[in-house]
Sequence to fold (69 residues):
Amino acid sequence: MDVITQILNYNHPVFYVLIAWSFSWKGVALWHAARNHQKAWFIVILLVNTIGVLEIIYLSFFKKYKSIN
Fold:
């Protein structure tokens, strides 16, 4: 538990890497949810912070794909 506390200290570089990772995935997922008019997914992704896990799940399995026609 002490190692986790040290990593999540705001002076530790891994903390900033986790923030960048999370914001990147959140931004992409929110953009896709907004473009596809998926309001429920947009709200859940916006409010729930899972360090990118929920966003990756959404983008992998629940994102609507547009047809090329």
Remarks:
- The chain has a mean pLDDT of 86.
- Helices lie at 2-7, 13-35, 39-47, 53-62.
- The chain has four helices and no strands.
- Residues 22-69 form one domain.
